[in-house]
Amino acid sequence: MRLAKRSHGSRLEMNMTPMIDVTFLLLIFFMTVNQVSNINREQIPLPPLAGTQDQSEGGVTINIDRAGEIIVSAQRVSLGELAGLLGQQLAAPNQSAATLTVVIRAHRDGDCRTVNEVVRLLNKLQITRVRMAVEVPS
Amino acid sequence: MRLTSRSGRHQAKIELQMTSMIDCVFLLLIFFMVTSSFHKTERELDPAVKVQQAAAQAASDLAPPMVDIVRGTGGFVYRLGGREFTSTEPLEAVLKQFENKLVPAAVRAEDGAPFLMAASAIQACKSAGFSLVSYVPLDREPAR
User: Fold this and answer.
1) Is the Cβ pair A116, B122 closer than 8 Å?
2) Can you tell me the distance from the alpha carbon of B144 to that of B128, in angstroms, rounded to the nearest whole number?
3) Would A21 be classed as within a structural domain?
4) Tens of pLDDT along chain B (144 residues)?
5) Would you call B111 and A106 a contact, using CB atoms and an 8 Å cutoff?
6) Does residue A44 belong to any structural domain of this protein?
7) d(CA B144, CA B133)
8) Out of 3.40.50, 3.40.1440, 3.30.70, 3.30.420, which CATH number does the structure's domain B48-138 have?
9) CB contact under 8 A, A3 and B43
10) Sign of the C-alpha dihedral computed for residues A129, A137, A42 and B33 taken in this order
11) Residue B136 forms beta bridges with which residues?
12) Which of A14, B68, B127, B141 has the most CB atoms at less than 10 Å from its CB?
């Protein structure tokens, strides 16, 4: 699609200004409104509740699907493997059981079995900062 | 920011070069259309997590409001004290009547209980004004 008419005699010159304007505008738009894409968050329907606080960033996100499978960073893991992952997190410098935040994202139609197992594990590791994700109903 | 020099072109007709801008806009528009997905706003509940211990359970029966999710005749229900509720509205109304909101409330759910009910019970406690709500996993249904 050619909208601009090119005069044959004149020197060909690419006007960058509008393109840069638009690119910067869209870049600022993205930076302002876009949620940080997070591979840790599975697309699972969460309990439709108002919640008590906004999403916390960082930490470990544990997804539990309807069948009770545990998914961490897009990988299905067993409870033992989850314990290993949490142990690695706790072993990191400047990290401790008191500062590590764990977000449990459990399917709204699932039962508490896996959630309870995860909570017991977190208790065993003395992790106290536990959050349960919900989605605000429209 | 001026990248193009206009020196020596004072006599030339000013012409807006639309091609590159339209290319860029179309490209970004297609990118958005292909990659965008709509998410509902996500928030969090912040219960304290505890593991039930037999001695602690017996000792704490008096003070804190304890919401159990138990199997009733027609499915799981919320139980607070001797009363059973099928929805969170009446449960929240009863929780609001507790005078001392500084004591931690607790939600106890057995393995088979729906997670939605456990989360709803935590939300009800928080909405009733309890600042600290504990989630306690149960191995089996609590005794009636």
Assistant:
1) no
2) 24
3) no
4) 555 555 555 566 777 777 777 777 778 777 777 776 667 788 888 888 777 654 444 444 456 789 999 988 888 999 998 899 999 999 999 999 988 888 889 999 988 999 999 999 999 999 999 988 999 988 765 454
5) no
6) no
7) 22
8) 3.30.420
9) no
10) negative
11) B108
12) B68
Closest residue, chain B, to A137 (C-alpha): B40
Whole-model pTM: value is 0.73
Which of A50, A103, A116 lies at the smallest CB-CB distance from B111? A116
Mutate to test the interface with B, among A43, A61, A104, A132 (most CBs of B within 10 A): A132
Tokens 């020596």 belong to which residue? B8
Of A47, A111, A113, the CB nearest to B119: A47
Q: Do B114 and A55 touch (CB under 8 A)?
A: no
Per residue in B91-113, is it b (16+ CB within 10 Å) or e — as a string? bbebbeebeebeebbbbbbbbeb
CATH of the domain at A94: 3.30.420.270
